[in-house]
Design brief:
Number of helices: 7
Mean pLDDT: 80
GO molecular function: rRNA primary transcript binding
Largest sheet: none
Radius of gyration: 30 Å
Protein name: RNase MRP protein 1 RNA binding domain-containing protein
Helix content: over 70%
Low-confidence stretches: none
Order of helices and strands: HHHHHHH
Strand content: under 5%
Oligomer: single chain
Structural class: mainly alpha
Length: 171
Amino acid sequence: MDTTELQHEFSLLRILYHRNKNQHRVTTWWKWLNSLKRTLTKVLCLPDRLRLQPLVKKLKLHIIPGCYRAFNNIISLGQFVTLGLVLLGLLARINKCIDGLGVVYETKPVVSKLEIVPTDDDLGQVIETEELDVVAAKVVPIEHRTQRKGRDKEKKNKKKKKRSAIDDIFG
């Protein structure tokens, strides 16, 4: 088992983790980075392949997809785009290294087609468009509602506060 590439990626992950811990430790995506770091630490410390199998399965099925979504969120927010791109690139290289370990794990087969079973349940009542026109005519137009609100604002604007000399200076 050649883990030199994985160790290199892990060292980069550790540096990013250490450098950004104080600033980002309360964010939601930090949970995923933390779990990725902890799981990779366990993977690198275990020499036995039989004990690696559950960890690799956890990484591939749970942690890496969660990290992917969380790191994409960093990019979509736009505040720390460079950090998000670096984390996504690092995650992709870690995923490639995990695939290269050669650990085989079982997955459940995915059902590709859904079977639609007809039922005799009541699906509701069909509404004709003529009935909708009658209901729409009874609704008060928006214009009438906004006119009332405008009058209330005019009454409120008439009351002015007394101004002092400080108000003349600052504002």
